[in-house]
Amino acid sequence: MHRDDNKKISDTISNLLHKMGLEDIKIESRKNAEGTKTQKEEQLTIFNIQSQDSPLLIGRGGENLSSLQHIVYILTNRQMENVPKFMLDVNNYRQDQKNRVIDIAKYSIDRVKAEGRNEILRPMTSYERKIIHTIVSEHNNLESTSIGEEPNRRVLIRLKK
């Protein structure tokens, strides 16, 4: 992402948050952190909003954050011809959530290997399931599949047959 693109997106976020009445905010941008990444995440720039109003910005299960990202994308799309891929985060919520999902994946993989039984995880968002599938795919003797219907879609981890 070019420096000008970064600035335009950051300014859009800042202007929107100010219009929402949020004054004490700080926005930092960074390339996606190292670690388990999906292919889409390879080119992402993450804009982390630091705010005391994080519960309002994040919402239940990150719903407000997802909506905020969608709004920022629409506003940015009006200003730029080709909007680069980016993700919003608030007080590193998404990164912390991703780390929790990675921990769940590792724990579940260990259980499946040790016990030889299938493991069905809690309902997850498509983003969380993608993280699980990516980690499981790194193990030659394991496979994963998504089962169920939204919003109760889960990941099943099992030994390959």
- Count of folded domains: 2
CATH architectural grouping of the largest domain: 2-Layer Sandwich
The residue-averaged pLDDT reads 91
Rg, Cα atoms, Å: 18 Å
Instruction: Give, in order, the helices and strands.
Output: HEEHHEHEHEE
The first-to-last residue Cα distance is: 43 Å
Helix count equals: 5
* Unreliable stretches covering 5 or more consecutive residues: none
Proportion in helices: 40-55%
CATH topology of the largest domain: GMP Synthetase, Chain A, domain 3
The CATH homologous superfamily of the largest domain is called K homology (KH) domain
Could you characterize what this model shows?
The chain is of the alpha+beta class. The protein folds into two domains: 3-91, GMP Synthetase, Chain A, domain 3, CATH 3.30.300; 97-159, R3H-like domain (Ribosomal Protein S8, Chain: A, domain 1, 2-Layer Sandwich), CATH 3.30.1370.50. It is 45% helix and 20% strand. It is built from five helices and six strands. It has helices at residues 3-19, 54-58, 63-79, 93-115, 126-136, and strands at 25-31, 45-51, 86-90, 119-120, 142-147, 154-159. The strands form two sheets. It has a three-stranded mixed sheet, with helices on both faces. A three-stranded antiparallel sheet has the order 4-6-5. It starts with a helix and ends with a strand.
